[in-house]
Design brief:
368 residues, alpha+beta, 29% strand, nine-stranded mixed barrel
């Protein structure tokens, strides 16, 4: 048994080494990887953009004077931290010719921390070094920072019922696999094509402990704790760790260029005794565990929370509007008051890699 476990561990580590040795560098503190006291510049053509956490990466083919081409990896801040610089998911695209100014790798790799980028000869977009401001004078806050932080909240939400507190998610629970109505799924040809591609073994990111986000978290049997923050409800879920979601209750809509995320932008209102929440600005994800796709940017979710039994229960209904389907999709669940505190619910991906190893698919998986 110990020998098998050791073999699995070594195989798993070896697979990770194979993954990182093909051009993707290990993630460290930026001060470890990049020389903060040096600057360099390159020019080239963008070959790939990964607008993802924890750091956005841009890959650039740079041609030397003798005609040799080298692919550089340009690293920068997480997606949400780039918005103040007017840098979004579609700012840089494959094929763009760019000039990159940044801090070079300490290890002599073709890698750089992004400080500025000019696209197709345009104006230079300044990004910043990625460290905390050195002095208080360096800190610049947006004009509406108090509104979005909730720090100015003084009054409670005007609600017909206090829904704050702990709730359990197993009331009216059904496995989140092919649980959407109507049936058969009103899928477009594109939805069918994408779902077919999602059937590859190991393609469900939840198996790798990547948070599933909305709308799957709505269908999961996880607990949620609700806080009244005056300007918004704070929903804290115990799902593969902890997921925190804000539901703004003051009538606002998402600001221009609000970034896409796994939980999106949610605005709520009380309507005829029920809490109605509309969510947009979602990343492309799966609707359920069977791989039905969600477009993300064009998706709109409408949740309705209906209190029952003097607020002891809540019936929940989710309507998914998505152009990948010819009519809205519906998921129903419930919540019940709970005295059980949220658990840490840490997700360990070892089982996923064990399955890959046992199926003889681990090399194929990391080769993709």
């Amino acid at each position: 048994m110990a020998a098998n476990k050791m073999f699995l561990g070594l195989s798993y580590i070896g697979a990770l080494i194979c993954l990182t040795s093909g051009g993707a560098f290990a993630h460290h503190s930026t001060a470890v990887d990049f020389d903060k006291d040096a600057q360099a510049s390159i020019e080239g053509v963008v070959t790939k953009v990964d607008f993802i956490n924890p750091h956005v990466r841009i890959y650039v083919d740079v041609t030397s004077a003798n005609g040799d081409v080298e692919n550089w990896q340009i690293e920068t801040r997480p997606p949400g931290n780039l918005a103040p610089s007017k840098f979004f998911g579609d700012t840089v695209e494959v094929g763009d010719r760019v000039r990159i100014d940044g801090q070079p790798s300490r290890r002599g790799r073709p890698s750089m921390w992004l400080l500025g980028i000019a696209i197709d000869g345009g104006a230079n977009i300044l990004i910043g070094a990625g460290d905390e401001p050195s002095t208080a004078e360096d800190i610049v806050l947006p004009a509406d920072w108090e509104t979005f932080s909730g720090i100015a909240a003084e009054n409670t939400i005007d609600a017909p019922l206090d829904i704050t507190g702990l709730w359990g998610g197993r009331y009216r629970f059904t496995a989140t696999v092919d649980d959407l109505e109507p049936k058969p799924m009103p899928a477009t040809p594109e939805a069918l094509r994408l779902r077919d591609g999602n059937q590859v073994f190991g393609s469900d990111y939840a198996l790798r402990c990547i948070p599933t986000g909305l709308p799957r978290i709505f269908g999961a049997p996880v607990g949620v704790e609700i806080y009244d923050q005056g300007l918004f409800y704070l929903f804290v879920y115990s799902a593969g760790g902890t997921s925190v979601r804000r539901i703004y209750m003051d009538g606002r809509s998402a600001p221009e260029n609000w970034p896409l995320s796994m939980l999106g932008f949610s605005a709520g209102r009380w309507e005829d005794g029920s809490l109605v929440i509309e969510t947009t600005h979602l990343k492309p994800m799966w609707l359920d565990g069977s791989g039905w796709p969600m477009s993300g940017e064009e998706t709109r979710l409408v949740e309705t929370y209906i209190p029952r039994n003097n607020g002891v229960l809540m019936d929940r209904r989710l309507v998914i509007h998505d152009p990948l389907y010819t009519e809205p999709l519906i998921r129903t669940r419930g919540l019940v008051r709970s005295e059980e505190p949220l658990t840490e619910n840490v997700c360990d991906p070892e089982g996923f890699y064990s399955d890959l190893l046992n199926e003889g698919l681990i090399e194929e998986y990391f080769a993709e």
